[in-house]
What does this fold into?
Amino acid sequence: GQQLNQSPQSMFIQEGEDVSMNCTSSSIFNTWLWYKQDPGEGPVLLIALYKAGELTSNGRLTAQFGITRKDSFLNISASIPSDVGIYFCAGQDGNFGNEKLTFGTGTRLTIIP
Amino acid sequence: NAGVMQNPRHLVRRRGQEARLRCSPMKGHSHVYWYRQLPEEGLKFMVYLQKENIIDESGMPKERFSAEFPKEGPSILRIQQVVRGDSAAYFCASSPRLNQPQHFGDGTRLSIL
It folds into this structure.
């Protein structure tokens, strides 16, 4: 099955730095979502985007739905220790009952002391 | 306000045995989705169900795997005659209706001896 390409695969940053990651697809999606997963837990929804070009914020997180509908970006400002984890993008078609999520390969965020 | 509940959290089976994974969706959610995650990978869609109906099973292996979401009770993912390759984390998600974000449980980690 298809997987979305996420980059970078991993990031090592210092506390307080800003973070940017992106996700690209060969096909169009009508909804983009960003999740964070901690070890041993399920993905937790961070942001949902429903419209091409949409820019949405959730606290220090900002995500954008690419205008071509084939990509999305997530930015984290002023990173803190609890931001450590794996971030996944997911695309959803949503037409004709096609509700399944197609996930990216993940970006692992590590904060260097 | 309970989230998606999955049990057991960990399940160990010997090759050839059956595995039953349970998922209770969030209150008010009638759409259930099952995903599988291998280590260091993103989640892969398996099946989408509404009460008493399988809507999309395009990600489910044709043999040994089945899923149900009865009128009463949790959704069940059943794996018959398990093999080593079935070892993975299995996540359930739910949503209240179409085109709404999916919220995930903490998964069942299946290990095959």
Notes: Chain A has no helices and eleven strands. The mean pLDDT of chain A is 94. Residues 3 and 104 of chain A are 5 Å apart (CA to CA). Chain A touches chain B through 27 residues (CB under 8 Å).
